[in-house]
Design the sequence.
């Protein structure tokens, strides 16, 4: 299975400050169709996961533009330009390039 | 609006069985692969199984193959997960999710607790 490794696992952030989460995969996430299947999910406390970013850098409808995704191959990043209180939760990267789809361990974002 | 609503969770004894359902609405169900993903209490996310649009192809995570069966009824817009020989480590919230590679919509989940 493709191993997804996130860092950090805990991220205390001051409101209004930027935050960055790294995700590394044990294998390339480039699929045979040429797409890179790396998604980012947000899970707020008590809620189900919500997709924020798909195929590395495409923001989902309704997702604030302070969220951005970047990267290629095996190295990816989720950035929040200015953290707001509603961003508290756990963030997961997920690869869909190889079966089975696998997730990172999760990064808990909290307000300092 | 896309909606996925899971049901069927509950308390079951080790070795028992349970069938989960997911009612889909707001999109053409028969056009999409569908999946089940689970999350043990306080833990991360784990893929369980996925099924092709017409049910002709099913994929399972190794640890669940042989015990779990994914199926669908496109006429009723329903996705199922039959779980047999349940173990304590199967205790989790089970989510229904649309698609596989891009997994765009998820339900609210249904809790399965395996305990005596």
Sequence:
């Amino acid at each position: 299975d493709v191993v997804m490794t996130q860092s950090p696992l805990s991220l205390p952030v001051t409101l209004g400050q930027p935050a960055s989460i790294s995700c590394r995969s044990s294998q390339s996430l480039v699929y045979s169709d040429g797409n890179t299947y790396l998604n980012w999910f947000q899970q707020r406390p008590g809620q189900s996961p919500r997709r924020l970013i798909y195929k590395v850098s495409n923001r989902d409808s309704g997702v604030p533009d302070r969220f951005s995704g970047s990267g290629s191959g095996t190295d990816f990043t989720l950035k929040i330009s200015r953290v707001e209180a509603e961003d508290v939760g756990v963030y997961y990267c997920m690869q869909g390039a190889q079966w089975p789809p696998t997730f990172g361990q999760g990064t808990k974002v909290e307000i300092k | 609006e896309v909606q996925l609503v899971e049901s069927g969770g509950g308390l079951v004894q080790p070795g028992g069985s349970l069938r989960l359902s997911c009612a889909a609405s707001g999109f053409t169900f028969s056009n999409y692969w569908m999946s089940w993903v689970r999350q043990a209490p306080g833990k991360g996310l784990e893929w369980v199984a996925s099924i092709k649009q017409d049910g002709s192809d099913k994929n399972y995570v190794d640890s669940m193959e042989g015990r779990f069966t994914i199926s669908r009824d496109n006429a009723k817009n329903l996705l199922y997960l039959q779980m047999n020989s349940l173990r304590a480590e199967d205790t989790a919230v089970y989510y229904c999710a649309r698609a596989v590679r891009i997994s765009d919509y998820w339900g609210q989940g249904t809790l399965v607790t395996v305990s005596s």
